[in-house]
């Protein structure tokens, strides 16, 4: 069950490694289960403070490090040798006792956010409760059943919590937070290989009069329809996100020749949006201004800003608002 728990926490946070450490009276921390990148760390390194585990056990609090090489709480060469750049550690609590530590890592700096830390803490609480009941009952069979049940419930809760933070409530599309995370990953993956993916920025033309004339409920229905059309126009490997209002962004990755491919995709999207359609009993022809930027060793924020500027140039040239 500990292995399943580590698989769950790595999936939820996109960590590259995880470990469960149990506190043994007079003997320090002992590895109970370990996955991924954490297997490269010498087991004594956890107990000697070469990760956040020792500091977490002593402080009884969730600890988060965005850059281990600059973190005074991390001592020794363990993180450097294993190329662990980011860490989250949470205590395994049972009542007033701390039974051990759940720790996850990533090979990149600033890999985790507060939502990841909260998800790790949720799983740590579930695991601590289950492990504590095992020690109290001294019944391995009953522990495994309870641990599995607690993990399933916690996994569902953590997924729901994370989904709420990463998806737009109106359209069900990914939101800005998810887009920025995926865009950063795409920039890292394609570093040194220009023109392999593109970012498209889409802003509806004349959307405000729809709200003013037909009401916000109809406006919301139009936004949901736009999200559906955009999703149907691209591949499963592409990411359609709503930034807010009537602004949408599409991460097109990978592309064979982004300079040429993105123009064809943009034309197809505009044709699809402009097909007359009935929404809430009203016939609409949806028009949009589209701009894009192809990857040329950008960082995520500069690429998003460039696509936004390209869209506004297109809107201004067409005399739209």
From TrEMBL:
Cofactor: Mg(2+)
Domain GGDEF: start-end pairs: 195-321
GO molecular function: catalytic activity
NCBIfam families: GGDEF
Name of the protein described by the UniProt record: GGDEF domain-containing protein
Species assigned in the record: Cognatilysobacter bugurensis
Lineage, uppermost ranks: Bacteria, Pseudomonadati, Pseudomonadota, Gammaproteobacteria, Lysobacterales
């Amino acid at each position: 069950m500990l292995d399943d728990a580590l698989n769950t926490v790595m999936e939820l946070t996109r960590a590259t490694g995880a470990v469960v450490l149990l506190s043994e009276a007079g003997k320090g921390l002992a590895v109970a289960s370990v996955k991924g990148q954490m297997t490269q760390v010498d087991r004594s390194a956890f107990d000697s403070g070469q990760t956040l585990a020792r500091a977490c056990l002593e402080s009884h609090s969730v600890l988060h490090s965005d850059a281990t090489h600059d973190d005074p709480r991390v001592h020794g060469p363990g993180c450097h040798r294993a190329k662990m750049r980011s860490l989250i550690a949470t205590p395994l609590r049972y009542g007033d006792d701390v039974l051990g530590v759940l720790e996850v890592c990533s090979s990149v700096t600033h890999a985790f956010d507060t939502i990841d830390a909260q998800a790790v803490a949720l799983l740590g609480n579930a695991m601590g409760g289950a492990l504590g009941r095992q020690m109290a009952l001294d019944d391995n069979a009953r522990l495994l059943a309870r641990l599995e049940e607690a993990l399933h419930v916690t996994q569902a809760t953590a997924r729901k919590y994370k989904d709420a933070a990463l998806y737009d409530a109106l359209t069900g599309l990914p939101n800005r937070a998810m887009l920025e995370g995926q865009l950063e990953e795409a920039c890292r993956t394609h570093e040194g290989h220009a023109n392999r993916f593109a970012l498209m920025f889409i802003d509806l033309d004349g959307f405000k009069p729809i709200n003013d004339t037909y009401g916000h409920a109809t406006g919301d229905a139009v936004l949901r329809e736009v999200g559906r059309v955009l999703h149907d126009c691209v591949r499963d490997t592409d990411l359609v996100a709503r930034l807010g209002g009537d602004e949408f962004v599409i991460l097109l990755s990978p592309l064979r020749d982004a300079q040429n491919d993105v123009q064809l995709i943009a034309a197809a999207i505009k044709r699809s949006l402009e097909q007359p359609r009935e929404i809430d009993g009203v016939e609409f022809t949806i028009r949009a201004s589209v701009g894009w930027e192809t990857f040329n060793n950008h960082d995520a924020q500069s690429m998003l800003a460039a696509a936004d500027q390209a869209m506004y140039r297109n809107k201004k040239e067409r005399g739209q608002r």
